[in-house]
Amino acid sequence: MVRTWEQAWHDALYGDVGFYRRPEGPAGHFATSAQGPAADVLADALLELARRESLTTIVDVACGRGELLGSLAAQADSAMRLVGVDVVDRPIDLPERVEWVRSPGGTDLPDLGSPERALVLAHEWLDVVPCPVAQADRHGVLRTVLVDEDGTESLGEPLATEDLRWAQSHWPGPHACGDRVEVGRPRDAAFATLVARTGSGLVVAVDYGHTVAARPRAGTLTGFADGSACLPVPDGSCDVTAHVAMDTLGADGLHTQQDLLRGLGVDGTRPPVALARRDPAGYLAALAAASHASALTGPGAGDFLWALRRVG
Questions:
Q1: DSSP-derived pairing of the beta strands 209-210 and 244-245
Q2: Cβ-based burial of 260 (10 A; exposed 0-12, middle 13-18, buried ≥19)
């Protein structure tokens, strides 16, 4: 069945047998900064951000199986309210103090109860919010890309008015034949909805992304499965993701992860070798912590963009 990428993408990730409903969860296929030892470093930074902003609730949107929330629960004092949001039922091994809200998936968000003084985090969520994919034909006209279940693509009709208007404003041409555009309008709307469902506090989107000065001419649509990048096939067998136009979200500020985390005290500096002679165990612990910090602030993850929007 041939459909638009936006339609096929949504069903592939969030349909009844979609990728994000699989029992192994995202961590069964790829690692993020919110999983493993790096999650402890990220949790510490988020708690520092919440402290500086006088926030008393952390809501983790599209939180997978709650890996980051587990780290937050281990570090946060009992006064900090923790809430996870994802498309599956509450994981059985999640710490008891963590609340859980089930989400429909994609652009659809559940009622979050308008949390007050909340840090609402969307970590690698917007890149899996499906959006229209367009490609320029030989005349430079942007046409909707259609796809069937085995990933075979074809060009459909010219972009609809709203999507074309977004592209003209935020991904300007001229577009040569074969150039691609991932229309971020649904992502902008999803972020706006997240802001609207927050009573007060700070809404943060963290993702691989780009700005208008460096839009990727070939697009970024790709798949991930079993630890490796693969062709994006909308059949539920793999993740389907595309980088986010972060400068169109209407954020108050945009920062690289490297800059923001270093400002929150995440330091990847190796401990002095002298410590190894004085305190071998302490040296090894400090070395491990520096390694995890470097993983979050070095090339790759350090290039993530953080979009921050204050509410109320």
A1: parallel
A2: buried
Strand partners, 146: 4, 154
Identify the H or E element spanning 146. strand 142-147
Read off the pTM.
0.91
The amino acid that residue 2 corresponds to is V
From CA 307, how far away is CA 275, in angstroms rounded? 38
Q: How many helices (H) and strands (E) does the chain have?
A: 8, 17
Q: How many CB atoms are located within 10 Å of the residue 100 CB? A: 17
Buried-state track 213-231, b at ≥16 Cβ within 10 A, e below 16? eebeeebbbebbbeeeebe
Reading the chain (312 residues) residue by residue, the pLDDT tens digits are 899 999 999 999 999 989 999 887 666 545 666 666 788 899 999 999 999 999 999 999 999 999 999 999 999 999 999 999 999 999 999 999 999 999 999 999 999 999 999 999 999 999 999 999 999 999 999 999 999 999 999 999 999 999 999 999 999 999 999 999 999 999 999 999 999 999 999 999 999 999 999 999 999 999 998 888 999 999 999 999 999 999 999 999 999 999 999 999 887 666 566 666 676 676 566 656 666 667 777 777 668 999 999 999
Q: How many angstroms separate the CA atoms of 152 and 300, rounded?
A: 30
Helix (H) or strand (E) holding 118: strand 118-123
What φ, ψ does residue 105 adopt, rounded to 5°?
105, 155
CATH class of the 31-131+184-208+243-263+290-311 domain in this structure: alpha beta
DSSP bridge partners of 102: 86
Contact (Cβ atoms closer than 8 angstroms) between residue 301 and residue 253 = no
118 burial (CB, 10 Å; 0-12 / 13-18 / 19+) is buried
Which residue type sits at 102? Answer: R
Distance CA 191, CA 129 (A): 10
Query: Cβ contacts of residue 269 below 8 Å, gap of 6+?
Result: 290
